[in-house]
């Protein structure tokens, strides 16, 4: 599931200057959607690239060739100043609902907005979900239970967007029932809270990998090879690096060059990843050859606890350098498996060991290093059930 952050910026927020400040902060933080009133759609598009949802009174029309796309929202939302927000009474017979009528007409609206005042509104949200691609629910004097009910009952019928005011509320919405809301609608003017909510979204979508120890068997100096440095557009922390290796089933944790040395300044944007033939792990759980990487590609950054995030490749430097062949053994359910990689013969290349960071030039037989081990073969970077021998 891809989590998203919507930012509420309609006239309830304040005048246009106040709305503009909130929208600009959201764009800078990286929100996915902005929810505004119809008259603000073009203004939002002038501020930057973002998907725009807009409250409508139901008079929206199907987009055609003559329509001005700048005026058209990506999603039309019904429910404001209607039954959804309590401005109009919900009829006893929902077949007479004005909001539902609009949602059931092709081209009128694809999202419903419901404030949950009580159980009747919760039931109304369930009905809205049967007709809407997106169902936005905002709790009034409630927290977990109604959201749990809605996730359990309508989770597969619609994209559920839960109203929140803080990053911690967003985390709870994403985690409820271990399924969570698809998205959150954030209502706050706090710029830090907007940024933190986007960070929570990113964190929820990230993979946690299991790193295990492998025992070094051989360290052998080889001749020179074409070595790849991955320079990212992101700064890495002291405990972060990338997973690289000559064999797709076993990737070594190689630290980013965050450490200072007497001879070389730290380069916390760089991982000296090895020879051009080696694999590097990507955010989708696949791999790429180091030789394939180009500016703009995404690679996976991982820390020593297995927490991951993505980084953008800014530059790839390929130069001929003397190398080490590093060989290690991993304990598996089927026995011992040997994995290898080539790393540059230089003090600045460090791997994670049971005793902490260690330069590849200082590695010894018997050292335990962190690796990611998977027993599946790969074809064009995708894990497959096939017998492939790598040695």
UniProtKB/TrEMBL annotation:
Pfam families for this protein: DHQS (PF01959), DHQS_2nd (PF26558)
Catalytic activity, EC: 1.4.1.24
Task performed by this protein? Catalyzes the oxidative deamination and cyclization of 2-amino-3,7-dideoxy-D-threo-hept-6-ulosonic acid (ADH) to yield 3-dehydroquinate (DHQ), which is fed into the canonical shikimic pathway of aromatic amino acid biosynthesis.
Q: Provide the protein name.
A: 3-dehydroquinate synthase
**HAMAP family named among the record's database cross-references:** Arch_DHQ_synthase
Keyword annotations for this protein?
Amino-acid biosynthesis, Aromatic amino acid biosynthesis, NAD, Oxidoreductase
At the top of the EC hierarchy, this enzyme's class is oxidoreductase
| Recorded catalytic activity of this chain's protein | 2-amino-2,3,7-trideoxy-D-lyxo-hept-6-ulosonate + NAD(+) + H2O = 3-dehydroquinate + NH4(+) + NADH + H(+)
Q: Which GO terms describe its biological process?
A: amino acid biosynthetic process; aromatic amino acid family biosynthetic process
Similarity annotation: Belongs to the archaeal-type DHQ synthase family.
Q: Give all residue intervals belonging to the 3-dehydroquinate synthase C-terminal domain.
A: 214-391
A GO molecular-function annotation:
dehydroquinate synthase activity
Domain (3-dehydroquinate synthase N-terminal) spans 3-200
